[in-house]
Every structure is written in structure tokens, then in C-alpha cells.
Amino acid sequence: MAAFWTGQEAVVETLLAYRPFINLNGPTGSESNALIEAVDTHSGSCPSKHNPDTFRIVKLLLETRRVDVNYVAHKSSSYERNTALSAAAGRGDVESVNLLIAAGAHDTNSNENSGNKTALHQALCHGYSAIARLLIEEAGSDVSAITEDGYTCLHHVRDVETCRLLLRLGAGAEGRINGQTSRYGQTALHRTSDGEIARALLEAGADMGIRNADGETAFFSAVQVWKSKVVKVMLTFGKVR
């Protein structure tokens, strides 16, 4: 797999041309496949570090139609590279996300080694709202997906437009609006630092009275860490604790 993550385009072209039966997906249950390695390398750690040379390798691999675009890395130690789509979404790599979706990639949280974290969770928690909306509209992302640690999409959202979209699509339904994380007992309202997101959550039925693992309500927590905009919004919604 080395050629795929070191960006050796000429080597990859040679391998694909002269070894038509090369296994691009690795053995069943392996840590990665050629596509995940290529996407992971292209994406870098952030959008400013995307590598155009390795993007060509991503395209070459997809053009073979022999690489599994939805391959799940069952032994991956990184939540962010569970699938090629997750790797791209978690790094803000919209080029690869678009390419993968066009090739048939869909979002999934079926892998326990990923903490049941989807590509949508990855995009939201890193603040890539445009990618999040793309995943919802084009990759079948489940807005109701919950990680094994209890995080919903609403726990991760960072802008009010995406928050309202998630709520319209049912992300807060069936009690998820007040869902608590398993370790800290936080609701989405506890976590947000954005006043308008707090307003959207409260309008959708978020409960200010729920206490986290430290016994703090969302209002008390906001006061403690000086979330002034959140506090102001909460005060307009009646009795606070």
C-alpha cells in the first residue's frame, strides 16, 4: 500500500497497468485499503495541506472500478479514517468527498471500531458544515445517528443553519434533543457556545434543567465558563437553574 499513501503517482499507474489483478482492498478485516490510504494522504491534517498529487491517485483508483469505495477499515486505530468518506469529511476535503459520492460512497456507522462515528459526525465536529450538508443531501447520512459515547449530530453542530437543518430532518426527535453523552452527561445545550444554536435547540424542546455528570444544568454550565450569548438567550426562555 506504500505507493498509495506516499503519493507516488507514476508507481501507482505502473501497478494498475501491469498488475490488473492487484488486490486494492487488502485482506478481509485489514486496517485499510488503497483508497483510504490515498484519501487520507491527500486530505492531510486540514484543507490547507491537501495534496494535489495524491488527489490524482484517488481519481486513478476510482477509475479502475476495482476498489471498494465503501470499504470499512475494521482495525483502524483512527476514528477519522474508518472509511474513505470519513477520512475526507474529517479533514475538510470537499474534492474527495464529491468524488467519492459520485463513485457511490455512502455514509455508515456500522463499524464498532469507529465508535459508530459517521462521516457526518466527523464533518460536524470539525466545523465543516458545507461537507455536512453535502453528506446529508447526497450520501444518505443519518442525522439521527448516535456514537457509542452518546454523541448525536446536535452535540457537534457549529452553525445555526446546519443546526436548524438537522432539527427539520429529525435529529432531535425521540428524545435525542436532550440526549446525554455517556461520559460527561452533556446535552447538546450543555456543549454549545453559540447563542443562536442555543435558541434553535430551546425552540425545538431542549431542556435547560437536565444536569450533567457534575450536577450542572446547561444554564449553570454556561455561566461558569462565560458563554455570555448563550446565557442571554436562556434568560429569555423563562425560569433558569
User: Regarding CATH, which class of the largest domain?
Assistant: Mainly Alpha
Structural class: mainly alpha
Strand content: under 5%
Distance between the termini: 56 Å
Mean pLDDT: 82
Reading the helices and strands in chain order gives: HHHHHHHHHHHHHH
Q: Which word captures the global form?
A: elongated
| Low-pLDDT segments, ≥5 res | 1-7
State the fourth-level CATH superfamily of the largest domain. Ankyrin repeat-containing domain
Percent helix, as a range, is 40-55%
**What's the architecture of the largest domain in CATH terms?**
Alpha Horseshoe
Query: How many individual domains?
Result: 2
Please tell me how large the radius of gyration is.
Answer: 20 Å
Plain-language structure description:
This protein has 241 residues and is an all-alpha fold. The protein folds into two domains: 1-142, Ankyrin repeat-containing domain (Serine Threonine Protein Phosphatase 5, Tetratricopeptide repeat, Alpha Horseshoe), CATH 1.25.40.20; 146-233, Ankyrin repeat-containing domain (Serine Threonine Protein Phosphatase 5, Tetratricopeptide repeat), CATH 1.25.40. The protein has 14 helices and no strands. It has helices at 2-6, 9-18, 34-43, 52-64, 84-89, 94-102, 119-125, 129-138, 153-156, 160-168, 188-191, 195-203, 218-224, 228-235. The termini are far apart.
Structure at a glance:
This protein has helices spanning 2-6, 9-18, 34-43, 52-64, 84-89, 94-102, 119-125, 129-138, 153-156, 160-168, 188-191, 195-203, 218-224, 228-235. Helix 6 packs parallel to helix 8 (129-138) and helix 10 (160-168) runs parallel beside helix 12. The chain is mainly alpha-helical and 241 residues long.
